[in-house]
Structure formats: structure tokens, C-alpha cells
Amino acid sequence: MRWRIGSAMTGAAICATAFALLWPHAKDAGAVLMVQDDPARLSDLQLDSILRNDPALVEQNIKAALAAQDTNLANSFVDLAAARGIPIPGELSQRVAEAVREENSTGHMAGRFLAGLVTGNADDGASLSGTVAGDLCVFGDVRDIMREGKHLAMGEDTDRLLLGLAATGLVVTAATFVSVGGAAPARAGLTLVKDARKVGRLGEGLSRWAGRSAREMVDTRKLQDAVATAALARPRQTAGAIKAAIRAEKAGGLVRLAKDVGRIGEKAGTRGALDTLRIAQGPKDVARAARLAGAKGGQTRAIIKILGRGALLLTTGAFNLAMWVLSAVFALFGFLSSIKATTERLTLSWLQRSKARRLRRQSAVPS
User: Fold this and answer.
1) For 99, phi and psi rounded to 5 degrees?
2) Cα separation, 363 vs 367, whole angstroms
3) pLDDT in tens, 258-307
């Protein structure tokens, strides 16, 4: 009986120790599993853990961003520090403020707008405005369609994704004018997706999805005929032939993607949207990033810089997190079972001793 009581107490001690060791991990894992569908809360929990272990991380990233002349990213980390109550040295905050003032100066903004208008590439708000202005004139989209359509007609390598994005651009541009600017966020978002594709900053998974969607949009035979008969002297007929080759009803997926990218750009800035397109593996990632940007605004770039795709969804794996929780539950169950067994065996031992004493007293009484 003593051995049985001792083994039960030993089991209780082992399970209690295991539970104490597992509980912090299980608590964090459970919290993450509870908010896995909320990117803002998910990123908050992960940042709590990372910044608790490395409180100097924000300051280091601000200095690195300034050294790389990425003022927008540096300012995003300043916003993150302010939101989380992390102190930043006054001298460093002043350097960021001065860089932001310089970037927002009239001369700088005008130069970036012109660069975006001429080159069609956007990497900040000003250059995006210039690029969108060019796209609203449909020149950029028609140019891309003509170029890729010619490659297609001649049997050369064709960027079908860029072709589909340009075709979607014509659809969105028309909607922008009809709605008097109501579709402007989608137009800006689509421009960013095109730019990300051109400079190789579109995630591989997102590229594959967008490529499949783009192929469904374009009637290859009609586009080849339009390119073959295109003439600068007949711009109206050429534009009409190109539009006839576009299946506007198939543009829904790309338009939704463009709207989400446009919302990210509005809340987190152009570079925030480009960072998202680089890590996104599909439209669901972009939709999650739009929710994150809506909640965190200017902090979004800093959060994505630290967490990467983990800012948008679980990357550890729900199974691994669930195992921490289940392990803690089993340890707790083992502890309670051991306590129950110990109590039962102690009670049984006490009853047996009581019975033995009673029998001894009875046997000691003379008959």
C-alpha cells in the first residue's frame, strides 16, 4: 500500500511539474489559435513575444531604414514604437522627422510625380499619383496590351499575367470614369500590381493565381487579330478591337485583388502595398493584409518587416500549436488523476488501519 501511495504521489508531482513547464507555451499557443483569423490581433500577440525578447529591435530597424534611405519604413517603426509605448531616443526621432519633411517637400513630390508619369513605375505616393494619371489615360494599358499581344501573335514569350492586368486596367479605368472616381482605389491598386510584376516584386503564389485569372480574360484569337490590324491612323478602331478581345465578365477576381491592394495603399502607403504583394501567396493573403492595414495604418510596414507573412496568417502550423495545448491538458488530467488515486489510496489505507485496530481491540477483550 505504501508503494502504491508513493507511486501516485510521484505521478502527481511529475504531472504538476510538466504542467508548470507546458503552461506558458500552451497559453501563448491557445491565444494565437483563438485569433488566427484576425491578422491585427495575431500580429499583436507575435510582436509581444518578439519585442519582449528583443526590446532594441525597433530602434535597430529605424537606424537600418534611415541608412537605406527608406524614410517611410523608418517612420513606420516610429509609429509602431509610439503605439506600443517603446521609447525612442530623441535624436533618432528628430532624424526621422527631418527625413519625412524632406520627402514631403514640394520639390521632391513634384519630381516623384513626374517620374511616375513618365516611367510608369511607382514606389511612393507621389510617383503612384503620376503613374495612375498615366493609366487613367489608358496609354499605359494599351501599350502593354499591344506589346504582349504582338509577342503572342508572333509566337514569342508572352507575359500573359501582364497582358491580363493591362486588360483589367481598361475595364477598371472605364468604371472609374463612369463612377466619377468611385473605382479609383481599384485603379491605383491595379497599377501597383502591374508595377510589382514588372520589377519582380510579386509573390510567386500570387503570380500563379493572377496568371490563371488573367488567361481567362483575354480571347487570344481576337487579340491577335486586333494586333495584326492595329494602326496608329485608326486609334478608335484599334481600341475597339482590343476591347472586343477582353472578357470583362472574367475580371472579377483581379478587380477584387486590385481593390484590396488599393485599400492597403490608402492606409499603409504605396511601399506598404508593394511589401504585401512581395510576400502574398494568393488573394486571401492580400485581403488579410487589407484588414491589417485598416487596423494598424502606418505601422503596417514595420509589422510586415518584422513578421513577414506571419503578420497575415499562422506560419507555425495550427497542429504544432494545438499539440502544446493538448500536452498541457494531458498533464493537468494526469495531475488530477494522480491526486484522485492518492486520495483513494490514503483513504483505503486509513480504513484498513482502522479496521485492524478495531479487530485488535475486539480480540483483547476477555470473553
Assistant:
1) -65, -40
2) 9
3) 889 889 988 888 888 888 988 888 889 999 999 999 999 999 999 999 99
CA distance linking residue 290 with residue 269, whole number of Å: 12
Other Cβ atoms within 10 Å of 259 Cβ, number = 21
- In a 13 Å sphere around the CA of 124, the CA atoms on its Cβ side amount to 17
Taking the model in full, what pTM does it have? 0.67
CA distance 39 to 264: 14
94's grid cell: 528628430
Residue type, 85: G
User: Could you state, in order of their start, the residue ranges of all structural domains in the chain?
Assistant: 1-36+323-367, 114-311
Taking the CA of residue 229 as centre, how many other CA atoms within 13 Å lie in the half-sphere pointing to its CB? 13
Q: Which three cell numbers stand for residue 90?
A: 530623441
Q: Helix 204-217 crosses helix 160-178 at what angle (to 10 degrees)?
A: 70
Confirm if 166 and 148 have CB atoms less than 8 A apart: yes
Note whether 328 and 22 are within 8 A (CB): yes
Which grid cell is 250? 472574367
Measured between alpha carbons, how far is 105 from 344 in angstroms, rounded to an integer? 79
